[in-house]
């Protein structure tokens, strides 16, 4: 038995030997200058981590990369201890196995216990790492270079490492290219994927295998902890920029490559700085930039959007109040005095005058300085009616269809009146059977009816109730 | 029999200090960690444990003293900062909290590593090795404080104080903590502030983590945070029981860790974690709630499902 096992190990070693000779032949083709190696390495790592990162980010398993990168430590230590000549392929294989094992334990913990993904990831991350630490502390002399794996050092990358990076990146690119759709469906909705007949378990296993590969080859350059940065940060930056997955892949790869190049360049110019930290900070800088300025999901755009909506709501509320003042006077007059508006809004005359000027600026009303009064323009008139209609329709809808009490509907309607679109209004009108009065007995205006903008008095009563004339 | 008495004979009184130290690190971690698990925020522990680094490094660069209280304050600030960053990212954009956590802590950790490499080179104490592995057994090399006729290593005294502080805080705010963990809405309706509880907890967590940082390192502290809580979570549905079990787990893994350390002469912090992991495996197999054995028996219909499974 022992003999057989020895034979097998011997054969395995022979296969590795063969693979190594073959690979080192190929590795000769890799660039040998320091700069060439660094540039190629950062392109390959940026691309492969960027691609897989998109999946972990949309899967909401962003920290899976973190768990896997820590879980490879026992494998790295095993490789350093068992392979006397530090064969990079042996280390790669053992580290990957250890990483895949870690990913498997995470899945197993989530499936068999009540623990959620966060706790499962944390357990695997720390326990695997502890196993590596304990083992390493026993074999200090054999594992002297382990710190390279923990903090990353791009200058320690040799041609063999480059070859592995190339093979891994190509493999990942090919798999993602061929299986983009199934992988995507599994990532977004595993149950749906199952119903489509995709082999979900296989796809997950494949994905985590690839993830382990890319983490292992990235370790030497960026280190255990900052592999997470390479996986998550470029992908999250891309997620801010686009809503579609393929552009997200491209953006993520771009940011990955750019931060990789920045990391290599800085850490080569300043010897003291480790590559991984600079890469992580460069990636974070990209993220911070687009956190503010991303065209649709950036903070600035959102802020502007909110500010715009606020000012629009403000204008619409003004229009609505003017309308209701006019309505109370049964549309006998066509202009509203500044005083009555300020009384209704419970604010000073100065503030009201400012509001009036705002309405004038947007061509919603004409403000006459000498009379201190406001007259709605056609545009303003229409918008006012729309808002009042939305408000009253919604109140009616809430009382009739949603069984709200009559005195509970106003606040809701105050909010929704600004956001109801034409389609929903149409639907509401149809559902409510084209009502004419709201729950409080006030008439619902009809801005959509074709009315010529002529005599203001006539116009008003016509618009409110076109059947009368 | 020899192997059972080995640590005590070989290490003498030091063995007591080591076990006590391991326990004093693990105990506050286990209590805070239990709540982290219930709040599904275990990885915030991960994030904080990494991001206290720049706080520690900056405070260290100013004071030049590794045992200065400024280090704990710096770390506390860095810990709060990372939670604020995480909130900023995942509230402000559509990036989810897990990715936000990853972005925030890697950035701060990278900053810490860079600072350490740029300015900390001559100061040997704060080496990258220690950040990752932790050196629990180094406490014996520190000067001792004399308490009641015994020479107690100074880190043990500091750690005991931290443990005491943590447990007292948690005891005082127990009700608020429980309520906001299980039903933040209800807590808010009682007039508590779940957000403040969140940040308060993060602050306490940062202090615990930084105190544990030196002895067990940035990564193994995560194990001490999560393992006891996970162990207890697999065994019970009742919170007070869970907290006591977690404390028990902390004690047991400290003792078992010392044995592993003595038998194999390896890294003590790692040994404590491995002991804790072994206990977790036991709970996974035989635990009353999540134990696979009971699940299997239940699936065969041999055992009734216990009805006290509601918290």
Q: What report would you give on this structure?
A:
- The complex is a heterodimer of chains A (469) and B (311).
- Chain A is an all-alpha fold and 469 residues long.
- Chain A has two domains: 269 residues, Orthogonal Bundle (ABC transporter involved in vitamin B12 uptake, BtuC); 172 residues, Arc Repressor Mutant, subunit A (Orthogonal Bundle).
- In chain A, 72% of the residues lie in helices and 2% in strands.
- In chain A, strand 2 and strand 3 form a beta hairpin.
- In chain A, helix 18 crosses helix 19.
- The longest helix of chain A is centred in the C-terminal third of the chain and has 30 residues.
- Chain A is elongated.
- With 311 residues, chain B is mainly alpha-helical.
- Chain B has a two-stranded antiparallel sheet.
- Chain B is globular and about 50 Å long.
- The interface between A and B is large, with 62 and 63 residues.
What secondary-structure arrangement, pairings included, does this model have?
The complex is a heterodimer of chains A (about 475) and B (about 300).
Chain A: H1 2-27, H2 34-58, H3 64-71, H4 73-82, H5 88-112, H6 117-138, H7 146-151, H8 159-178, H9 180-188, H10 190-195, H11 200-222, H12 227-241, H13 245-269, H14 275-293, H15 299-328, E1 335-337, H16 338-345, H17 349-361, E2 365-368, E3 373-376, H18 378-400, H19 410-416, H20 422-431, H21 456-464
Antiparallel strand pairs in A: 1-3, 2-3
Chain B: H1 2-11, H2 13-38, H3 42-63, H4 69-92, H5 97-119, H6 128-133, E1 144-147, E2 150-153, H7 154-172, H8 174-182, H9 184-189, H10 194-233, H11 239-264, H12 268-286, H13 292-300
Antiparallel strand pairs in B: 1-2
Helix pairs in contact in B: 1-2, 1-11, 2-7, 2-10, 2-11, 3-4, 3-5, 3-10, 4-5, 4-10, 7-10, 10-11, 10-12, 11-12
């Amino acid at each position: 038995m022992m003999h057989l096992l020895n034979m097998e190990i011997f054969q395995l070693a022979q296969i590795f030997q063969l693979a190594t000779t073959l690979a080192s032949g190929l590795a000769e083709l890799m660039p040998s200058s320091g700069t060439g190696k660094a540039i190629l390495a950062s392109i390959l790592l940026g691309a492969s981590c960027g691609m897989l990162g998109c999946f972990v980010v949309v899967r909401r398993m962003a920290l899976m990369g973190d768990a896997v990168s820590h879980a490879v430590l026992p494998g790295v230590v095993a490789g350093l201890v068992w392979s006397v000549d530090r064969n990079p392929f042996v280390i790669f294989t053992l580290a990957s196995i250890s990483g895949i094992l870690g990913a498997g334990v995470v899945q197993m913990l989530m499936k068999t216990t009540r623990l959620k993904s966060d706790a499962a990831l944390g357990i695997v991350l720390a326990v695997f790492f502890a196993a590596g630490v304990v083992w390493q502390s026993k074999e200090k002399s054999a594992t002297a270079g382990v710190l390279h794996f923990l903090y990353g050092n791009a200058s320690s990358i040799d041609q063999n490492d480059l070859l592995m990076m190339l093979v891994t990146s190509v493999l990942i690119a090919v798999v993602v290219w061929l299986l983009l759709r199934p992988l995507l469906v599994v990532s977004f909705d595993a149950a749906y994927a199952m119903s489509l007949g995709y082999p979900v378990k296989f796809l997950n296993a494949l994905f985590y295998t690839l993830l382990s590969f890319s983490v292992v080859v990235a370790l030497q350059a960026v280190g255990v902890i900052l592999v997470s940065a390479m996986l998550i940060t470029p992908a999250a930056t891309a997620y801010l920029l686009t809503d579609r997955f393929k552009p997200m892949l491209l953006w993520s790869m771009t940011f990955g490559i750019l931060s990789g190049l920045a990391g290599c360049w800085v850490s080569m110019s300043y010897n003291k700085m480790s590559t991984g930290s600079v890469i992580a900070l460069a990636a974070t800088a990209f993220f911070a930039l687009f956190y503010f300025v991303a065209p649709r999901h950036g903070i600035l755009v959102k802020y502007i959007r909110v500010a715009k909506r606020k000012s629009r709501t403000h204008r619409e509320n003004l229009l609505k109040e003017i309308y209701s003042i006019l309505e109370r006077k049964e549309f006998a007059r066509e202009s509203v005095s500044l005083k009555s508006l300020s009384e209704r809004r419970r604010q000073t005359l100065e503030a009201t005058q400012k509001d009036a000027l705002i309405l004038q600026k947007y061509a919603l009303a004409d403000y006459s300085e000498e009379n201190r009064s406001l007259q709605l323009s056609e545009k303003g008139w229409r918008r006012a009616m729309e808002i009042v209609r939305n408000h009253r329709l919604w109140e009616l809808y809430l009382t009739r269809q949603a069984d709200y009490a009559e005195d509970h509907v106003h606040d809701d309607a105050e909010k929704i009146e600004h956001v109801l679109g034409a389609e929903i209004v149409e639907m509401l009108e149809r559902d409510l059977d084209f009502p004419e009065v709201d729950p409080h007995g006030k008439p619902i205006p009809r801005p959509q009816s074709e009315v010529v903008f002529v005599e203001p008095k006539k116009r008003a009563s016509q618009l409110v109730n076109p059947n009368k004339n | 029999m020899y192997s059972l008495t080995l640590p005590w004979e070989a290490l003498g009184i030091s063995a007591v200090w080591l076990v006590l130290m391991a326990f004093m690190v693990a105990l506050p971690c286990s209590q805070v960690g239990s709540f982290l698990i219930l709040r599904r925020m275990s990885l915030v522990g991960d994030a904080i444990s990494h991001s206290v680094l720049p706080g520690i490094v900056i405070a260290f660069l100013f004071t030049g003293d590794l045992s200065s209280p400024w280090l704990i304050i710096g770390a506390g600030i860095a810990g709060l900062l990372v939670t604020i960053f995480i909130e900023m990212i995942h509230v402000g954009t559509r990036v989810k909290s897990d990715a936000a956590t990853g972005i925030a802590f890697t950035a701060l950790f990278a900053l810490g590593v860079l600072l350490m490499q740029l300015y900390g080179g001559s100061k040997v104490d704060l080496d990258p090795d220690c950040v990752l592995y932790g050196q629990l057994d180094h406490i014996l090399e520190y000067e001792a404080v004399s308490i009641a006729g015994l020479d107690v290593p100074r880190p043990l005294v500091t750690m005991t104080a931290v443990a005491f502080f943590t447990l007292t805080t948690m005891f005082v705010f127990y009700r608020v903590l429980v309520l906001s963990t299980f039903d933040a809405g209800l807590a808010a309706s009682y007039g508590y502030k779940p957000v403040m509880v969140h940040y308060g907890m993060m602050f306490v967590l940062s202090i615990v983590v930084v105190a544990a940082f030196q002895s067990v390192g940035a990564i193994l502290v995560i194990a001490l945070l999560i393992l006891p809580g996970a162990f207890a979570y697999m065994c019970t549905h009742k919170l007070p029981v869970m907290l006591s079990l977690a404390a028990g787990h902390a004690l047991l893994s400290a003792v078992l860790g010392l044995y592993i350390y003595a038998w194999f002469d390896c890294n003590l912090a790692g040994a404590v974690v491995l002991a804790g992991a072994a206990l977790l495996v036991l709970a996974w197999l035989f635990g009353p709630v999540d134990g696979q054995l009971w699940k299997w028996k239940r699936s065969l219909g041999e055992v009734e499902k216990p009805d006290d499974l509601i918290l």
